[in-house]
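My main concern about presentation is that the manuscript never shows what a single data entry looks like. For the editor and my fellow referees, an illustration may be useful. For illustration, here is how one protein appears when written out as sequence plus C-alpha coordinates:

***
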Amino acid sequence: MTHTRQFRDTIGLFTTGVAIVAVHDGDEVHAMTANAVCSLSLEPMLLLFCPAKRARLSQYLAVGMAFTINVLRAEQQAISNFFAGNWQQGAPPPFRFVAMGDAPRLEGSLASLGCKVQSIADSGDHWLVVGEVLELKQGIAPHEPLLFYKGGYRELQQGTAVAAPDLARVTDEPTHIYFDSHS
Protein backbone atom coordinates (compact mmCIF):
# COMPACT_ATOMS: atom_id res chain seq x y z
CA MET A 1 0.00 0.00 0.00
CA THR A 2 1.37 3.39 -0.99
CA HIS A 3 1.10 6.20 1.54
CA THR A 4 0.58 9.90 0.86
CA ARG A 5 4.01 10.88 2.25
CA GLN A 6 5.73 8.26 0.06
CA PHE A 7 3.83 9.57 -2.96
CA ARG A 8 4.82 13.18 -2.20
CA ASP A 9 8.47 12.19 -1.70
CA THR A 10 8.53 10.18 -4.92
CA ILE A 11 6.71 12.66 -7.16
CA GLY A 12 8.88 15.38 -5.59
CA LEU A 13 11.78 13.92 -7.56
CA PHE A 14 10.07 15.29 -10.68
CA THR A 15 11.35 18.84 -11.01
CA THR A 16 8.73 21.42 -11.91
CA GLY A 17 8.65 25.10 -12.64
CA VAL A 18 6.83 27.50 -10.33
CA ALA A 19 4.05 29.74 -11.60
CA ILE A 20 1.51 32.23 -10.36
CA VAL A 21 -2.02 31.69 -11.68
CA ALA A 22 -4.06 34.90 -11.65
CA VAL A 23 -7.69 35.87 -12.36
CA HIS A 24 -9.78 39.02 -12.09
CA ASP A 25 -12.95 39.18 -10.02
CA GLY A 26 -14.27 42.64 -10.73
CA ASP A 27 -11.52 45.04 -9.67
CA GLU A 28 -9.76 42.44 -7.50
CA VAL A 29 -6.93 40.13 -8.53
CA HIS A 30 -6.87 36.63 -7.06
CA ALA A 31 -3.66 34.68 -7.47
CA MET A 32 -2.03 31.49 -6.24
CA THR A 33 1.29 29.69 -6.57
CA ALA A 34 1.14 26.52 -8.67
CA ASN A 35 3.59 23.90 -9.84
CA ALA A 36 0.98 21.48 -11.21
CA VAL A 37 1.05 23.18 -14.63
CA CYS A 38 1.82 21.60 -18.00
CA SER A 39 1.39 21.87 -21.74
CA LEU A 40 -1.46 19.72 -23.05
CA SER A 41 -1.83 20.35 -26.80
CA LEU A 42 -0.23 22.33 -29.61
CA GLU A 43 -3.23 22.22 -31.99
CA PRO A 44 -5.16 23.89 -30.41
CA MET A 45 -2.76 25.40 -27.86
CA LEU A 46 -3.96 24.07 -24.50
CA LEU A 47 -2.42 23.84 -21.05
CA LEU A 48 -3.64 22.56 -17.74
CA PHE A 49 -3.20 23.44 -14.12
CA CYS A 50 -4.53 21.73 -11.03
CA PRO A 51 -5.60 23.92 -8.10
CA ALA A 52 -6.62 22.32 -4.83
CA LYS A 53 -10.37 22.35 -4.30
CA ARG A 54 -9.79 24.19 -1.02
CA ALA A 55 -7.68 26.90 -2.74
CA ARG A 56 -9.38 30.30 -2.66
CA LEU A 57 -8.69 30.81 -6.38
CA SER A 58 -10.77 27.71 -7.19
CA GLN A 59 -14.00 29.52 -6.29
CA TYR A 60 -13.31 32.12 -9.00
CA LEU A 61 -12.83 29.66 -11.87
CA ALA A 62 -15.54 29.08 -14.46
CA VAL A 63 -15.64 27.92 -18.08
CA GLY A 64 -14.93 30.86 -20.39
CA MET A 65 -13.12 32.90 -17.74
CA ALA A 66 -9.76 34.52 -18.50
CA PHE A 67 -6.66 33.71 -16.45
CA THR A 68 -2.88 33.85 -16.75
CA ILE A 69 -0.10 31.44 -15.95
CA ASN A 70 3.00 33.45 -14.96
CA VAL A 71 6.25 31.45 -14.90
CA LEU A 72 8.54 32.72 -12.14
CA ARG A 73 12.17 33.71 -12.43
CA ALA A 74 14.84 32.26 -10.13
CA GLU A 75 14.86 35.46 -8.04
CA GLN A 76 11.06 35.48 -7.49
CA GLN A 77 10.93 32.96 -4.62
CA ALA A 78 9.47 35.60 -2.27
CA ILE A 79 6.54 36.15 -4.67
CA SER A 80 5.98 32.39 -4.79
CA ASN A 81 5.92 32.19 -0.99
CA PHE A 82 3.54 35.14 -0.76
CA PHE A 83 0.96 33.66 -3.14
CA ALA A 84 1.36 30.20 -1.57
CA GLY A 85 0.32 31.66 1.80
CA ASN A 86 3.79 31.09 3.29
CA TRP A 87 4.69 34.76 3.73
CA GLN A 88 6.06 35.39 7.22
CA GLN A 89 6.96 39.07 6.95
CA GLY A 90 4.81 42.16 7.37
CA ALA A 91 4.82 43.90 3.99
CA PRO A 92 4.41 41.74 0.89
CA PRO A 93 7.29 41.47 -1.58
CA PRO A 94 7.17 43.97 -4.44
CA PHE A 95 5.03 42.85 -7.41
CA ARG A 96 2.54 44.35 -9.85
CA PHE A 97 -0.15 42.98 -12.11
CA VAL A 98 -0.85 44.53 -15.51
CA ALA A 99 -3.50 43.66 -18.10
CA MET A 100 -3.08 40.76 -20.50
CA GLY A 101 -6.34 40.63 -22.38
CA ASP A 102 -9.05 40.17 -19.75
CA ALA A 103 -6.70 38.71 -17.13
CA PRO A 104 -3.99 40.07 -14.84
CA ARG A 105 -0.37 39.34 -15.81
CA LEU A 106 2.44 39.36 -13.25
CA GLU A 107 4.87 41.98 -14.49
CA GLY A 108 8.52 40.88 -14.51
CA SER A 109 7.82 37.15 -14.70
CA LEU A 110 9.89 34.84 -16.91
CA ALA A 111 6.89 34.18 -19.18
CA SER A 112 3.14 34.70 -19.16
CA LEU A 113 0.40 32.81 -20.94
CA GLY A 114 -3.00 34.46 -21.31
CA CYS A 115 -5.72 31.80 -21.33
CA LYS A 116 -9.44 31.12 -21.25
CA VAL A 117 -10.86 28.23 -19.19
CA GLN A 118 -12.02 25.54 -21.62
CA SER A 119 -13.06 22.92 -19.04
CA ILE A 120 -12.89 22.03 -15.37
CA ALA A 121 -12.90 18.40 -14.24
CA ASP A 122 -13.15 16.87 -10.78
CA SER A 123 -9.85 15.11 -9.99
CA GLY A 124 -9.61 13.87 -6.40
CA ASP A 125 -8.80 16.72 -4.02
CA HIS A 126 -7.92 19.02 -6.96
CA TRP A 127 -9.61 20.43 -10.05
CA LEU A 128 -8.11 19.76 -13.46
CA VAL A 129 -8.46 23.04 -15.34
CA VAL A 130 -7.82 23.06 -19.10
CA GLY A 131 -7.08 26.45 -20.59
CA GLU A 132 -6.93 27.58 -24.20
CA VAL A 133 -3.82 29.72 -24.70
CA LEU A 134 -4.72 33.03 -26.37
CA GLU A 135 -1.63 35.16 -25.78
CA LEU A 136 2.06 34.59 -25.04
CA LYS A 137 4.72 36.86 -23.55
CA GLN A 138 8.33 36.03 -22.75
CA GLY A 139 10.18 38.18 -20.25
CA ILE A 140 13.60 39.65 -20.85
CA ALA A 141 16.70 37.44 -20.81
CA PRO A 142 18.32 35.76 -19.04
CA HIS A 143 15.62 33.11 -18.83
CA GLU A 144 16.48 31.47 -15.49
CA PRO A 145 13.41 29.73 -13.99
CA LEU A 146 12.52 29.13 -10.36
CA LEU A 147 12.32 25.37 -9.89
CA PHE A 148 10.70 23.13 -7.27
CA TYR A 149 12.37 19.82 -6.38
CA LYS A 150 12.18 17.54 -3.31
CA GLY A 151 9.95 19.98 -1.44
CA GLY A 152 12.14 23.05 -1.95
CA TYR A 153 13.07 25.81 -4.37
CA ARG A 154 16.00 25.27 -6.70
CA GLU A 155 17.82 27.08 -9.50
CA LEU A 156 19.54 25.73 -12.60
CA GLN A 157 23.22 25.00 -12.07
CA GLN A 158 25.45 23.74 -14.85
CA GLY A 159 27.67 20.70 -14.35
CA THR A 160 26.44 19.57 -10.92
CA ALA A 161 24.49 16.44 -11.89
CA VAL A 162 25.72 12.91 -11.28
CA ALA A 163 26.05 10.90 -14.49
CA ALA A 164 23.52 8.14 -15.15
CA PRO A 165 24.85 4.57 -15.11
CA ASP A 166 26.68 3.46 -18.28
CA LEU A 167 24.34 0.88 -19.80
CA ALA A 168 26.48 0.26 -22.89
CA ARG A 169 28.06 -2.81 -21.28
CA VAL A 170 24.82 -4.43 -20.10
CA THR A 171 24.42 -7.94 -21.52
CA ASP A 172 20.73 -8.53 -20.78
CA GLU A 173 18.45 -9.53 -23.62
CA PRO A 174 17.28 -6.45 -25.49
CA THR A 175 13.76 -5.27 -24.81
CA HIS A 176 11.48 -4.48 -27.72
CA ILE A 177 10.73 -0.78 -27.52
CA TYR A 178 7.95 0.95 -29.39
CA PHE A 179 7.74 4.71 -29.65
CA ASP A 180 5.88 7.41 -31.51
CA SER A 181 8.00 9.47 -33.85
CA HIS A 182 7.32 13.19 -33.82
CA SER A 183 7.93 14.38 -37.35
Remarks:
- The chain has one domain: 18-154.
